[in-house]
Design goal:
This protein is an alpha/beta fold and 149 residues long. Helix content is 34%, strand content 26%.
């Protein structure tokens, strides 16, 4: 037995894959799903806004007008958001920015700024990286599965 040649690595891996087909299939599935999500992230550029009344859309900017209160969660994908009124719910910006007016009335990029407490009665979540977007989608799937409504 000691004089027999050692088994090649390729055959060890092949034998392991044949012995564990479920793990192999699960790994391949995860790789394809992540690849699909990453490619979708880079190809998707269309402005998408959750269905809310009284919103103004100018180009790629969604505006909550002054004096208007948006009830429920607001999602803006591939666009910017300017909040002059109020949002009673969670605000989610996917591949977009929060635009705020400075003292002179000029629009400034709200990068790193939070809307004031009086404007958004909920969380302000920004999703601007691929892995954040994947995690955001995974959370939404599980919320949908386990929702008891």
């Amino acid at each position: 037995m000691a004089n027999l040649p050692t088994e090649k690595r390729r055959f060890k891996y092949t034998r392991w894959f044949k012995a564990h087909p479920v793990l192999t299939a699960a790994a391949i599935f995860v790789i394809f799903m992540l690849g699909s999500m990453v490619s979708t992230w880079h190809q998707d550029t269309k402005l998408v806004v959750s269905k809310q009344d009284n919103l103004i859309i100018e180009g790629d900017t969604v505006i909550v007008p002054e004096g208007v209160t948006v009830e429920g969660d607001l999602v803006v994908k591939n666009g910017n958001l300017k909040i002059d009124g109020k949002v009673d719910g969670k605000v989610t910006l996917i591949k977009g920015k929060l635009i705020q007016d400075d003292v002179d009335g000029d629009s400034i990029d709200g990068e790193g700024l939070m809307a004031s407490v009086g404007e958004v009665n909920g969380e302000l979540e920004k999703v601007d990286e691929v892995f954040e977007w994947i995690w955001f989608n995974i959370k939404n799937v599980f919320k949908g599965i386990f929702a008891m409504d």
